[in-house]
Amino acid sequence: MKVEQIYTGCLAHAAYYIESNGEAAVFDPLREVQPYIDRANKDGAQIKYVFETHFHADFVSGHLDLQKKTGAQIVFGPNAKPGYEALIAGDGQVFEVGDYQVKVIHTPGHTMESTTYLLIDEAGRQHGIITGDTLFIGDVGRPDLAQHVVSELTEEKLASHLFDSLRNKIMPLPDHLIVYPNHGAGSACGKKMSEETTDTLGHQKEVNYALRADMTREEFIGELLTGLTAPPGYFPQNVLMNIKGYESLDTVMKRGNQPLSPAAFEAAANETGALVLDTRDAETFAKGFVPNSVNIGLGGDFAPWVGELIPDVQHPILLVTEPGREEEAVTRLSRVGYDQTLGYLEGGFDAWKQTGREVESTGRMTVAELEALASKGEAPVIIDVRKRSEYDSEHLLDAINIPLKEINEHLAEFPKDKKFVLHCAGGYRSMIASSILKQRGWDDFADIVGGFDALKKSHLPKSEYICPTTLL
Questions:
Q1: Where are the domains of the chain?
Q2: Could you tell me which residues are beta bridge partners of residue 447?
Q3: Does 469 have pLDDT greater than 60?
Q4: Closest Cα partner for 299 from 336, 341, 328?
Q5: Is 63 helix (H, G, I), strand (E, B) or coil?
Q6: Which of 110, 130, 149, 420 is deepest in the core (most CB within 10 A)?
Q7: How wide is the angle at C-alpha 149 spanned by C-alphas 145 and 150, nearest 5°?
Q8: Alpha-carbon distance 375 to 393, whole Å?
Q9: What φ, ψ does residue 295 adopt, rounded to 5°?
């Protein structure tokens, strides 16, 4: 049986495509659906079904546009209540895609409508399971997301449902089945996913902590809930878009791909209160940018950081990009529901600068310069914007940890009466933090060139945290 995994690294997202005898199906598609249509056209196939494993939180699915463009039937599992036409399948229901079969296995726990799809080949052999966020490679789906949409669905209740789904629906299946999850390492939908994006079910039964055969319900719930961090703020908004519906991507792209002269760009920013989002790399941004811009570079985890730091997916956005990357930026914003891009600065930052309009820059400091200040007893306050787990692993001895994702709640902790420096691991996140602070009125600070990767090679004193369990 041929199953094609279509993986998008910036979201750690996997969609799936199957085709048999002129019929095709797509599972958990991304917002931009033309690649799936092109894939089916290449096979001379008609997309018959769009199967959704659940109402996704971390991205806006492309099921509605795929239905409109191909006539495909949208399929959800039991308990789903979408605000648009869709087939709500029963547990055990079988769908035919050419000579293949797709069997619905209701596996609530990540969400109550979560469904696994069992793939059966043309000879009637069970081939694999498309598990959505129920089962990952090395992990299972976090059970605390649905409660942000339906309050009575506590994480404990959902974890208990997931325990039953795994024991009663997934683990009894044959070991040879290939597990096809919706996400890989880097997704916020789990806590310790493997870098691998497929595996056999039998191997997962051996190595996945959540599939231990001797695990009690209480042990499962305890281990699953331990170490969960707060989900990104945009997740509930994406869930609602996937439940209720959304604008066509064609409409979003047409609105966002509007070239604006510097004068028109400035007028639009003033009239709409739009956020000016600069997607260039950190080094280029630091040298000069449109005043009040926020820098989130396309070269990093762009969409997830947009989702972490811009609270409202409906907030209007104006883009500054490297020329030629405007469409990419609008597309990647739309994947996580930020549909209100109003246009981009035609000609990029250079066009703005050439008009003589005001520009800003942000300070940068090398590790050698920081070492020189420290040797004279003049070291500035050091603020580490990495995750707490990174900080706990190793950090500069006197550094203060304010994770980037929490920056808006901790602005008062950034000093205004003394100089400070920022760093992350390599410079991507610290430049985001720098741009936010500049926008909010801070000036007397610098970003460390190369981040902690460079600081580790310095002679500055460091503190390393050793987890007690490593001493056993």
A1: 3-236, 247-354, 363-468
A2: 364, 422
A3: no
A4: 328
A5: helix
A6: 110
A7: 100
A8: 25
A9: -100, 120
Instruction: Report the pLDDT value the prediction gives residue 1, as an integer from 0 to 100.
Output: 95
Under DSSP, the state recorded for 468 is G
What are the two backbone dihedrals, phi and then psi, of residue 239, each rounded to the nearest 5 degrees?
-55, -45
Token pair 């920022």 is found at 422
The full length of the chain comes to 472
Q: Does the 247-354 domain belong in CATH 3.40.50.2020? A: no
pLDDT tens readout for residues 324-344: 999 999 999 999 999 999 999
Q: How far apart are the C-alpha atoms of 110 and 45, rounded to whole Å? A: 33
11's torsion region: left (phi>0), alpha (psi -120 to 50) or beta? alpha
Residue with tokens 């070269």: 299
- For residue 122, give both structure tokens: 């043309």
Residue 471 has pLDDT above 70, yes or no: no
CATH of the domain spanning 363-468: 3.40.250.10
Supply the pLDDT for residue 468. 36
Please tell me if the domain spanning 247-354 has the same topology as the one spanning 363-468: yes
Burial class (CB in 10 A: 0-12, 13-18, 19+), 190: buried
* Spatial CB neighbours of 407, under 8 Å, sequence gap ≥ 6: 309, 385, 433, 436
Helix axes 302-309 and 428-439, enclosed angle (nearest 10): 30
Helix runs in 440-472, H state only: 451-455
Confidence band (pLDDT; 50, 70, 90) for 467?
A: very low
Reported as a single tens digit per residue, the pLDDT across 144-189 is 877 656 667 899 999 999 999 999 999 999 999 999 999 998 888 8
CATH number of 3-236: 3.60.15.10
pLDDT for the residue 62: 98
Tell me which DSSP letter residue 62 carries.
Answer: -
Structure tokens at 408: 């808006």
